[in-house]
Amino acid sequence: MYRALIGTSIAAIALFLSSPAAAQQPAPPASGETPADPADADDQRTNPRVPLPELPEIEDEWKDLFAEEAADADVALEAQEAPVDLRYDFELGPISRLKVADAFKSLSALYAGRSKTVPSLAELQRRGRADTELLTRLLRAEGYYDPEIAIEVDPAARDGRVQVTAAVDTGPRYALGEIQINVDDEAERALVEQKLDLKEKQPLVANDFNAALDRLRLGLGESGVPFADVDNPDIVVDHDTRTASYALNVKLGDNSRFGQIHVDGDPLFSAKHIGRLARFKPGDPYDTREIEDLRRALIATGLVSTVSITPERGPPQADGTTPVNLVVALTPAPQRTLAGQVGYSTTDGFRVEASWQHRNLIRPQGQVTFRGVLGTQEQRLSADLRRSNWKQRDRTLAARVEASVEDREAYYARTLGLGAFIERETNLIWQKAWTYRIGGELQASEERDRSLRIAPGYAPLRTFIIAAAPVQVAYDGTDDLLDPKHGYRLTGWVSPEASFQDGFFGYTRAQVDGSAYLPMMEDNLVFAGRARFGTIFGATRSRIAPSRRFYAGGGGSVRGYGYQDVGPQDEDGDPLGGRSLMEFSLEARYRFGNFGVVPFIDAGQIDTRPYPRFRDLQFGAGIGARYYTNFGPVRIDIATPLNRQRGDSRIAVYVSIGQAF
Fold first, then answer.
1. Which CATH superfamily is domain 255-332 in?
2. Does residue 406 or residue 29 have the better pLDDT?
3. What predicted TM-score, i.e. pTM, was given to this entire model?
4. Would you put residue 210 in left (φ > 0), alpha (ψ -120 to 50) or beta?
């Protein structure tokens, strides 16, 4: 009986609220009253930034009467009911097809309690009323002001569970009507309308109005008026026409220009160096996008953990503009790194590496790294200097001094070298399309070419003095540095070299690399391909230092083979090295969740001639596993050589961060 009484009350109130008379006789707002949300009906002026609209005032009295009646009914019902543990099923029905379904599920009391018991039917009735009000508010936020909602509780338990069902009729959707922009200067109206980007007859969706206001404020800052006064809009809903009028007051003020940069607190960087990172100069039109660009550039140095850039408006100038000075406060990040790694390879043996790095030893941004390697086939000591943003943004000055001993299958070499470069490089924070590297190298090396034996088991040491001037240019049109899915990459380098070994002679080394990525199945499957070609011309193979020849094989080359295991060999099985190189790779990268599987096939060949010949290719194939992290995929590849040569292992395993190419 009580359930019937409550249902009758709900039906009566819903009939009254849906009648034309109720819709046409709203209670007028008090004088000076601040408007509420755009989803609030009954002709009240509204503020669209409130995320959930309040119920209209015209319903308040009836809501109170309903609450009192429902409360009396609940008390009576509870008085008759002994405390029990009820379980229920809640069928969303048409709610699941609405745009607000996810928001409703996250906030619904009935939906959240499906797996729990309730003490009484009265509690289910209270939850049903709360969810009815919640769904009404959510639908109004989407522009539906006349919904009909019924959430009913059927106490006749089925299989020991009470049934709760929902029926929803959203009604017609309200739209935006007249748009009124109030500005001091009519010439500025077009700018405000462009940035606001609201159109008549568009659905009356609260989030769209919030986004429009944010878009306007951001857009004005990008157009040189960051201190514009933008009021909250007045939105008046007309239930007769099912539209809402929109009125907005805007005062743009003076145009702003960039002023000076000031450093607040510990001067990690000087104002002059920060000015090099900025893409604007004092006097340029103010643009908030340039502020964000400067903030990202400061973070990309790796020396800063937090950045605060505060604009300070100066006095108006005679030309009608206002300078804006920038106060930059930086919190330093840790500047020293001590690193080490230990590894073992069936082809290269043991390898231990340690390094110490100070990322700002020579200010500003003078990174110094000392590195040592001790391994079965390699021993190395090096010192590197990198001056990032040297003289201008994105330009790096690099220098290196290195001493090494290598004992490879193809050669033995003791080398002392130094080099200096100017380059523009890419990084994970700021991926660049075009990069370059120009510099010079000087190297003195004693090398033994194992393929030039003058007696069984003996090859002489030869001394090489080499000067080189390498130049590299690269284009990256992909969407990600470590895990590309779209686009392509192209890199080319050329290195003219002069060598002294039994007299001076010259030659040129050159190489071209290209890769492309084709996504399918909504990027869950990516076909990736790579090709590489290299040549050395101007000298015979035997005159070129063994360490400067081409070799192939390994994790970044032809997988399944060890380094230097691809290409021609002498009668003792030692690699000859070559004057030309070609490599090809094809992968199918399939991702599911945070994991992936990658079948692949690689091919390559080294030739003693200066130009590669498309024959005698060596193939390697295998399968890889990927684990995708926030910084890139962790790669594990297992490969086998398909046409093994003498001494080749049957299985090779490669582990690294990032895709193979």
1. membrane protein fhac (3.10.20.310)
2. 406
3. 0.70
4. alpha
